[in-house]
Amino acid sequence: MDIFSRLFDQDLILTNLECTSKYDFFEKVSIFLEDKGYVTENFKEAIIRREEKYPTGLRTEPYHVAIPHTDPENIKKPFIAMFRPVKQIEFMEMGTDDQPVQVQLIFVLGLKKTESQASLLQKLIDMFMNKEVMDQLLVETEKTQILSILKSIVA
């Protein structure tokens, strides 16, 4: 099994997440991940600070996504969590500070320094541009199916 596929867990897949903004998203996700033992109590502050400095919205086709993350010292156990908000959430486009992107899927990356981030990011971006896969991720309700899709793409 590929190192990246082990980062996914069906307990870290949330569909129909109610959020009013990216800050509301970060609040809810930080509590969720801390309760599950994946992140430190400093995670929320760190991920917001990083997002404000280095936006993570991606204007990918067919759907826009975001890949927020923070420094390894805020991660207790490596993970990739997938969140599908009920309504699109506005993030700033990566590489800008004034280009909003309405994202439909959010992948929170909780990586330690040992993972090869460039390789993982390339696999994720390839997945984001695969309309068939993204269509499935946006409608599938069974976490086991979503997990299977993610593992098959990233493996």
Name the CATH architecture. 3-Layer(aba) Sandwich
Helix-strand pattern: EHHEEEEEEHHH
CATH H-tier superfamily: Mannitol-specific EII, Chain A
Helix content: 25-40%
> What is the CATH C level class, in words?
Alpha Beta
Low-confidence stretches: none
Percent in strands: 15-25%
- Global geometry: globular
Structure class: alpha/beta
**Main pleated sheet:** 5 strands, mixed
Tally of contiguous helical segments: 5
Per DSSP E runs of 2 or more residues, the count of β-strands stands at: 7
Mean pLDDT comes to 92
Radius of gyration: 14 Å
N/C terminus separation: 7 Å
Spatially, the strands of the biggest sheet line up as 1-4-7-3-2
Q: Care to describe what's here?
A:
By secondary structure, the chain is an alpha/beta fold. It has a single domain (5-154), classed as Mannitol-specific EII, Chain A (3-Layer(aba) Sandwich). 37% of the residues lie in helices and 19% in strands. It has helices at residues 22-35, 43-53, 117-128, 131-139, 143-154, and strands at residues 13-17, 57-58, 65-66, 79-85, 89-92, 100-103, 105-110. The chain has a five-stranded mixed β-sheet. Strands 5-6 form a two-stranded antiparallel sheet. A hairpin with a 7-residue loop joins strand 5 (89-92) and strand 6. The radius of gyration is 14 Å and the shape is globular. The protein starts with 12 loop residues before the first strand and ends with a helix. The mean pLDDT is 92.
